[in-house]
Amino acid sequence: METTTFLDKLAQQIVTHHNFDFSSIAIVLPNKRARLFLLESFKKISNKTFFAPEIISIEDLITSISKINVLTSIELLFEFYEVYKKITPKTEQQDFEQFSNWAKMLLQDFNETDRYLLKPQHVFNYLKDIDDINHWSVKTEDRSTLIENYITFWDQLPVYYNHLTKHLTANRTGYQGMAYRKAVEQLDDFIDSNHDKLYYFAGFNALNQAEEQIIQKLLKNNQAKIFWDTDAVFLNDMDHGAGYFARRIKQNWSYYKTHPYEWIVDEFKHKKNIEIISTPKSVGQAKIVGTVIEELQRTNENLQKTAIVLSEENLLIPVLYALPNTVTSLNVTMNYDSKSNPVQLFFAKWFKMQANALSRRKSKAVFYHKEVLDVLSHPLIEHLAQTKEIVSEINKRNLSFFDLGKLDFITSENKFLNLITKPWNNDVLEIIERIEQIVFSIRDHLRANNDDISLTFLYTFHQVMNQIKNYQLKYGVIDTVQQLQTIYKQVADIAEVSFEGEPLEGLQVMGVLESRVLDFDNVIVTSLNEGKFPAGKSNNSFIPYDVKMELGLPTFKEKDAIYTYHFYHLLLRAKNVYLLYNSDSEGLDAGEKSRFITQLILDRQNNHTVKVNNYFAKSPETINEPLVIEKSELLQSRLKEIATNKGFSPSAIGNYMRDPIQFYMQRILGIREVEEVEENIALNTLGTIIHGALEYLYTPFVGQKLTVEMVNEMIERHELTVAEQFHLNYSDNADKQGKNLLAFEVAKRNVHHFLMLEKELLQAGDVVEIIGLEQNLETVLSDERLPYPVKLSGIADRIEIRNNVLRIIDYKTGKVDLNQVQIKEINDITTDLKFEKAIQLLLYGFMYQKETSLPIQAGIYSFKNRKSGYLIFGLKQDKIVQEFITNELLIDFKTELVRLLNEILNPEIAFEEKID
């Protein structure tokens, strides 16, 4: 049986009285959202064409009575600032940022004062008297400047109010409260000019004083009818918050002494399936929403009469992503907090990048890499600006601070990228014009990709910038980029993204306020935590709680009652209800479960089935199982390709010994760490600088016998060489400051000490000839024990003939000890990672053995263990160390190497992760 909604009942009532002749009536609803639903209810009743009645919101009615154009919160803030500057001496004026911090709150108090028809002078004098009492003990002559300024502020409140309302009235504009007050004042004239019109008020709950007076006067003049949607359960329970306003109105309005209260319904106690679901984190709720929708689709494919009500606006995007692909009809109607608007967040980053660059500028703009990458990597423009190349180049060249205009790949061909990267000047209107161009480019891109959600976000941002532009054109008071940025921050925070759609088909996604008057069979409510739903105590007002109580202004108690009504009205005619809340007690989005949930459980109706479920992520039986990669035919083919073409290097073999999965990821799949800008020199970059400096210094002397004079020449040039390598390998525009200066000094010291050791050994009689620097070594290992020949390759930092012995030297910036390069036996050397350095040296000897007839040594020079000098590989037996890599030793090593290579290539042995 189909549920008769409140709007269905209302439509039937009106048709019964007017028989589709709606020319003399107007229907007033709490919001515009319900208009289409009400029209649909009228269409259900009739099978013929008819003229629809006039359906307006309460705000529309107030505007028509008051004839005041209600300004947006942003426009109002701008107008108030102009009034403030006119009445405040220039020496005492605050900038817009300081002003807006208190003005937004004050405007809210002005609004409440007018909506509740209080006498402004009385309210402000009351506040000033309270403030005077608070400082009664301080003599006038003893008051500090701070206290004096504080008291002056309270003195100024009536001045601000009077001048602002006078200024707005002159322009026939105002804020909502002004319109309400004016509407009450002009109500008699309105009644006279509309005496033949009947107003139907429907679906209201909480009314302010102005609304109560207007509706009661229309009722008294028989020019109105009003229909509530109050359930008997809430009305008759004197402690139930959902009936708080209904009980007060029913008791206090004189109209109800002679007329019945319409309508008291009996819906809440009917059969309902209520499922209360707790899960950690907000994203967990989004996932559960997707699961619930999937279940509901099994019985209701197009999800008619199903609503997702988000009490936390930030959940909108996660929920949309969590919905199943089978949801074909979807309508989002809600206001979204502008602070979470992804378009606004992008432009906030762009503002920061450009403004900070401008503040650093002397003759040119200097951009900071993190700010630039935040902008260029943003998904909103990443594809449009084609930023992949520029991001890669910034990371590759380690550009910390740089002039964007000098980067080669920013060309005039990519106009959008130029709009983003061209440095700002101090022309505010030029900046706003450029923002407009960026917005239009993004708009075209989003339209081409049918991204309606992002287009809505973009439209809201564009509205904000238009208002700032109009303000600047009208008053011309934004003089600097800093002021523009400040004003943007302030106004963007109070702008809301409004989603609107055609709500007659499919799944409805809405906020709490958008659900007013509407009824659904299936309701999913998220974020039912204290502080979210209900919103909890907040006092965004200069008027203290006790003063509000005395003056009859709403406090958090009334706010709680409003939330209670909205919550229970959502459940009123629903058949299936899913209530989700965050069970996590820690973190930013944590909170206690809502009192509404507790109330439903403790005060359960007889026909309500309430189930409580807790959803937690399943913990695996084993916390960390090792990753295993079986060697498929494709993987075997890739291994063979590497083994026969590129070859295995000493570092690759060490990689496999350390962790086969790391070897698989890096050497087979080619996955490398993401390149990032190093603000401070990393250890591997420091090593590259030292290697590069030594190669550059020694290159002129390759093939010659070294002399002390040659080394002295290198010592003289080493500082300049290290500096050149610093700029070449780290950044060509980096300043050597802080940690980078320390790293630079370390590199110079290491090179200097190495050269001094070289000089000492030459003076001690060593005869040295450099025969290779950064030399490629390779050989093919053919052995019947291997499935196919395997290429071995590597790069030796230095190859020399020292005292008729060929030596292969590897530089290490890390610390290496002698026990890491000396072994006691060759057997099983490849099974223990501690022999990694020794294996590397043996591999060098193995690859070079056919290139020389001289005895071979291989060693490491550790810059962090320079006192030990050259650490030469050795086989230590009976206290005698054999430092030469002999053919006999290499034959034994070859057996060990073949065993390790067979393990790498064997299709039956999977790559398995090593877990410490």
Name the helicity range. 40-55%
Number of strands: 28
Give the neighbour order of strands across the main sheet.
14-11-15-10-16-17-9-18
Biggest β-sheet: count, sense, barrel?
Answer: 8 strands, mixed
| CATH structural fold name of the largest domain | Lambda Exonuclease, Chain A
Annotation field: number of helices: 33
Averaging pLDDT over every residue, what do you get? 88
Q: Pairing-aware structural class of the strands and helices?
A: alpha/beta
CATH architecture of the largest domain: Alpha-Beta Complex
Description:
The chain is α/β, with parallel strands linked by helices and 916 residues long. It has five domains: 23-67 and 199-265; 71-181, no CATH class; 272-329 and 505-614, P-loop containing nucleotide triphosphate hydrolases (Rossmann fold, 3-Layer(aba) Sandwich); 347-499, no CATH class; 634-673 and 682-912, Lambda Exonuclease, Chain A. 48% of the residues lie in helices and 15% in strands. The chain contains 33 helices and 28 strands. The strands form eight sheets. The chain has an eight-stranded mixed beta sheet, sandwiched between helices. β1 (25-29), α2 and β2 (54-57) form a beta-alpha-beta unit. The longest helix is centred in the N-terminal third of the chain and has 26 residues, at 145-170. The two termini are 63 Å apart. The mean pLDDT is 88.
